[in-house]
Amino acid sequence: MHREILIEASFSEVFPHFTLAVLEADVTNKLVNIGLQREVNRTIGSIALSGNLDKIKEIETIASTREAYKRLGKDPNRYRPAAEQLRRRILKGLGLYTINQLVDIGNLVSLETGFSIGVFDADKVGQHILLRKGKAEDYFEGIGRGVLNVENLPLYVDEQAPFATPTSDSERTKVELSTRKTLIFINSYLPKNDSSRALLLEAVDMLKGLLIDYVEAQNIEQRIISS
Question: What residues form the membrane-spanning segments (predicted)?
Answer without folding.
Answer: none
